[in-house]
Amino acid sequence: MYSSSSVSRIILIYVSAIQLLLINSKLSLNVTNEYLNHTCLVSQGKYKLGSEYDKLFKNIMKMFYKNSIRGYDLFGDSTFTAILQCRGDSYGPKCRDCFVTALAALRRRCPWYKGKIIWYDQCLLSMDSKYSVGQIDYDNNFCMSNAKKVVEDGVTFIQVWNILIGDLTKLATTGDNYTLYSVGEKRYKGDMIYGMVQCAVDLSRKACQECVLYNRFHFQVCVNDMRGARVVGRSCTFRLEFYPFIAKQVRNI
């Protein structure tokens, strides 16, 4: 027989385990903000403290901080283009926090470079010393994939993920979806594949479609047969996983 104190300890341990499981579940969905990558656009040169470029940069970053609460911001003229794009479910304080983190990291990783880009799980921050609003960036893209492969019927899996990304791209670029963002899921055998597509706010719907299509083709070796992958770029990104990575990922495609 268990004593009352032993039963209480067992219940406490059980409750603590459940709480820990729930916390980890939330973290795996959308609370974490992992650093992904960055690039310093060395060919665009550097600027000096107190220069006109420096003054413009500081003013635009102040504006971005103020507007980051809505999830994105954009500025472009002949000498400077800047884009803040938070993930579609990351707005309000989460977007602002990601912006602050990204800006500090860019200053540290690419000091005084005019052109620079940094990617976090929840946001992208990009700066360019020329006018590039609305233009697809075909150069600054990369792929991250799971080490594990799909072991059964890889051909069917490739078909399923291509259909899912195609459907999500259509969903993100039609109707009243001004955010160029969509999430969804599709069944593959006994599993669910969860997906996300998002384009930068400066792109047109047609350019968004072209960007995703280009990256689907260019990085197919990285994505095919993998139990999870993401293709990330300055202009567009998409992601596939065998687990839900966004809290409200419930749409069936």
TrEMBL record:
It is found in: Secreted. PANTHER family: CYSTEINE-RICH REPEAT SECRETORY PROTEIN 38-RELATED, GNK2-HOMOLOGOUS DOMAIN-CONTAINING PROTEIN. Signal peptide: none annotated. Belongs to the cysteine-rich repeat secretory protein family. It comes from Brassica oleracea. InterPro entries: CRR_secretory_protein (IPR050581), GNK2 (IPR002902), GNK2_sf (IPR038408). This is Gnk2-homologous domain-containing protein. GO terms for cellular component: extracellular region. Residues 35-132, 138-245 form the Gnk2-homologous domain. Pfam families: Stress-antifung (PF01657). Keywords: Repeat, Secreted, Signal. It comes from the Eukaryota. The lineage of its organism: Eukaryota, Viridiplantae, Streptophyta, Embryophyta, Tracheophyta.
